[in-house]
TrEMBL record:
UniProt keyword Transmembrane helix, yes or no: no
Name of protein: Aldo/keto reductase family protein
EC category name: oxidoreductase
InterPro entries noted in UniProt: AKR, Aldo/ket_reductase_CS, NAD(P)_OxRdtase_dom_sf, NADP_OxRdtase_dom
All copies of domain NADP-dependent oxidoreductase, residue ranges: 7-164
Molecular function as annotated in GO: alcohol dehydrogenase (NADP+) activity
Keywords attached to this entry: NADP, Oxidoreductase
Keyword match NADP: yes
Family: Belongs to the aldo/keto reductase family.
Enzyme Commission (EC) number: 1.1.1.2
Native species: Candidatus Electrothrix aarhusensis
Domain of life: Bacteria
Signal peptide residues on this chain, from the entry's feature table: none
Amino acid sequence: MLSLEELPLAQTWSGMEAALDKKLCRHIGVSNFSVPKLKALLEVARMRPEMNQIELHPYLQQPEMLNFCRTNKVHITAYSPLGSPDRPSVFKEDDEPVLLKEAVVCQIAEQHGCTAAQILINWAVQREIVVIPKSVNPARMQENLAAASLELTADDMKNIAALDRQRRYVSGAFWALEDGPYTVANLWDEKEEV
Ligand SMILES: NC(=O)c1ccc[n+]([C@@H]2O[C@H](COP(=O)([O-])OP(=O)(O)OC[C@H]3O[C@@H](n4cnc5c(N)ncnc54)[C@H](OP(=O)(O)O)[C@@H]3O)[C@@H](O)[C@H]2O)c1
């Protein structure tokens, strides 16, 4: 595995720009980029990343990232919007909060006569964020698609905004290999304990 010193992001990005030049792809973007990494990339990029795909849900609302991306015209895709309940248990904590059972979200769902998953999806839609809930179940896929037509009230949005707690479900620990160049801290450019 190459470190960012051995293979700087600017070099990787120029390879992606070349792929776009040659029409080998239609769009280029990034995933799991922090604001500092995006800033550094935008300084050297010939073509801006169209998208940053990041974990985003009411427990990890990332307001600074949203502002930065809006200002710099980078779209955001929200992954794990339902709290990624089926990720391997080795990546879960025993006492982790379960987003689909969050009392505030469940109460709002009851008021709208829909499911907690639909509230979580619509919350992203109302913030004008692309959202990619994963399901292998056709009925849930229908349910998730139907969430687009809900309308959360200003009060609902305010109550959900109060749930932010910088809680990642995808901690990134599996990218931090022993003796490898990456740590959870240099991945997110945040404190080690997130
Ligand atoms: N770029 C990255 O680093 C990154 C990291 C993580 C994830 N992702 C991507 O993000 C997407 C979604 O993330 P994710 O799979 O981690 O988490 P997620 O979408 O938050 O959660 C998926 C789980 O929610 C369940 N589910 C789906 N719809 C539901 C509903 N209406 N009611 C109740 N449960 C429901 C699914 O079960 P069923 O399938 O049984 O319905 C599955 O267990 C995936 O495509 C994934 O590849 C990207």
